[in-house]
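G., before I forget:
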Amino acid sequence: MNTLVLLTLTGLGLAALYFLIASGLALIFGLMDVLNFAHGAFLTVASYAAWRTAEAVGGGPGLLAALLIGTLTGLALAAVTELLLIRRLYGRPKEQILVTVGLSLAIPALVQSYAGADSRTFPVPDALSGTVGVLGAQVPVNRFLLIGAALAVLVGVHLLLTRTRYGLVVRAGVEDRAMVSALGVDVTRAFTLVFALGGALAGLAGVLGGVYFGSVSPHRGTGLLIFGFVVVIIGGLHSITGVAWAALAVGLVQQYANYYISGGFGDIAVVILLALVILARPTPGREGPLAALRRVTRPPAPRRAIPPGGTA
Amino acid sequence: MTTTAPTAKGPRARTAGPAGRVGRLGGRRSWLVTGGVALALLTLPYSALDVPLLLDGPVNSAGSLQLFALCLVFAGLALSYDVLFGRTGLLSFGHALWIAGGAYGTQLAMERLDMTLLPAAALTLAAGTAAACLLGAISLLPLALGGIGFAMVTLAFAQAGSIWVERNPGGLTGGEEGLPLDADAVPSLFVGIGNTVNVYWLALGYLALVAALVWAVTASPVGKVWQAIRDNEQRVSVLGRDPFLHKLGAFVLASALALLGGVVHLLVTSGATPETTTAEFTLTLLVMVVLGGAGTRWGPIIGGALFIWLDHRLTALGVSDAVAGLPEPLAAPLSEPLVVLGALFVVAVYAAPGGLAALGRGRRR
């Protein structure tokens, strides 16, 4: 029981990290058709900026400053990338992916050339480095910080998307971008906003990742990005809630498999989960068993238009 | 070629792709170019020419031949990746899985099953191709997400392989250290610095095989269907061809060639390294293909060879006195070849959208 509680809370902490990365990826891809490979690089740079800040300030205020600086670094980096590089390639999704691929190779190498290849210890304030007893298990306090931050982001992004004018434009753009621009709305502003928001979330994930793992390293971002992609495929590209559920599943499966099956099996289990989801998900033209059942028992719902995807 | 006289070629000109990519296998000049390149590559080991700056030693020194062999292997690997990316329009992020599979599989078969090189390579190729059929089918299923689903699923599979190698289960894969080549099981022809020239011949043979196969298949009806899938998949299925089977065919062919390339890579670098399993390794292949020119005859070959040569020279430059004399903020990034190459790539996407091969074609017009 103790172990189960510990594993669940640690898995939730990991899920929080995955959610922060994947929500930005899903928003960017859903709106702009850009598969952002530089997302992990943003995370890495932000985590190093945060590490420097936390070292310089120290203690509890140091972590707060690191969170702020890390998030702002991610935001600024993403905004600059969008304005300077991505914007000039609108309507050419393949080139956009290629540019982010180039950045994803160059930026971590750049960080490594300045900060070294070895991982650095992230200074965590005493209040967060201890453990707390939950149902008999000793759980590290920082897990709750991650879970809290992810929940706050989930609520915040949800409110932004459903309650603000920008959110309305973003949601409409995800649904049918051509129609939105035909109605005279400046979609490019929404593009920049979403890209910068994604960068900010990646930056936040970078700082929290530093707290979670207790260190920062040049290639952490790329490693986490891959799980971000997995979460996005499982959760789908059109709903933040779907991404949140998928992050939860991936984080928990990874932790449980690591402990109950064998150490290191967690990552493999995630890939197996992904394969199962893909095989079980109905593809267009071939309906799954559940959909067939529903069709027999109920008149068909009006079909939603499939947004123009087919990038690669 | 196809751009010079559309009227003379008549109906054939219509089958040419947007950049005049197909229907070029015939034609005297392309044979001349191929023959010239082959002749140059065949004479390299006999030349004692000394090229300062471009190479460390004379052309036929062991160090230079080793570098050339690596360039040739990567030219072949880039060509195999282009079967997916440039010819069929499939963006795979898991090609490294097959290259590493070829290297690790062969090495493990020699080490653990006491096989010699040839049976070990054959076993790896057979088992790997069977796995490619299975994983390819799974990767091509998530149609709902378009090409992106394929990209991400291949990435996830390759990542599983990478993690497996890194975790070193039971001391099998050597973890971060990788596996040294089992010299006893390999014919003595390919072992030792004195035999670098034989490794060079092997790499050249691999590139020749890949080029012959890829060029022949892309010029065949199957290759035309691949190109049609790249340009308009819906139309292909309306015309009664099965896009899924053709894409699976391209995936299996590319994976088999990559497996074979992994075996050659194992011999050239005298070991299997975990770097070949990473997603970054696949991204490097993508960079090579795009840099050279995706979907062209020579583009991937030029891109692969040039990238490896630049990587090698930039590494040498990074530790040279000229760079060490620079102030620290400038010297640090120059010591990491990937910084320069990544930045170069980003610039190339804007400045040369069709790759280096397209630049050459533009001049000829």
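Chain A has a mean pLDDT of 82. DSSP finds 13 helices and four strands in chain A.

More on Monday.
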